[in-house]
Input
Amino acid sequence: MGFCWAAKVDSYSKYYLDLNNCETNKMELSDSHMHTELCGHAQGHPVEYVEMAARLGLTRVTITCHMPLEIPAFGGPRIRMPLERYPEYLELIEAARFRGDEVGVEVLKGIEAEVFPDAPVQKRIGLWLKEQSFDFVLGSLHHHTDAYQSWLRDHGKFSDDDKIKTYFADIADGDRTGLFDSMSHPDVIRIYGTLEGAFMPELYETEIRAAIAAAVEQDICWEVNTSGLLKGDYLAHPDPLILKWGCEMGLKLTMGSDAHLPRSVGHAFRRMISELNQIGFKTIHYFRGRERIEVPIEIGL
Output
């Protein structure tokens, strides 16, 4: 039996907010990173995420759950959707789009894909991405997965110094694959326990600038991810110093909350836009149909 996504929206009517009289300060901003329950570690229906975006005055959202990847070392049901549930993911996006049309929030279809330094695995990921039709593809190097931890051990990377240098070299290689529109939380190695000590980007300027240069050369974006404000060292990704280097080098940015709960949608966007403006960035970007669209930062201030 086919899935009626309009009926599915009706079944979530208990989550609806009265938005008809909601006073908002509309921002021409997009939240380009958020998840669904299918990844196993997020909560809430995408309709709730869309309604939160409407309350905040966001113009659009892009749903970017973790791509299905049937390799256990990349995480099971608590990390990413199984391949057999991917059609359900598309239906959830359609449900969110239906509600978005009602409340004035554009809903775009994205995915959070994987960066991985093993060529056959990266090729496999690339082939799957080419079979799909997305508005936006994030690249993520999840350093804390068993897959990447094993990669580090197998290649003799045991010290923090080796791990950090290897991580940013792999980010640079991910930039060069041509598979991704933006690199998400590009300094996420600073949290989740891979490093024994503190992450100090000033000690790795050469490696980090090389990764930024790869993105600039390939004309892809890096992501400003505000979830970092809620955990770890309570700084957005990437670190302000890395953003300063990126601004100097012509790096383009997307912005995402990495929301795993409806209340996290658009978290601290106004604050972050102000900080980006102070650093010197003039634009922020989103993607529709894999085409990059530029928005002046002053519109979001």
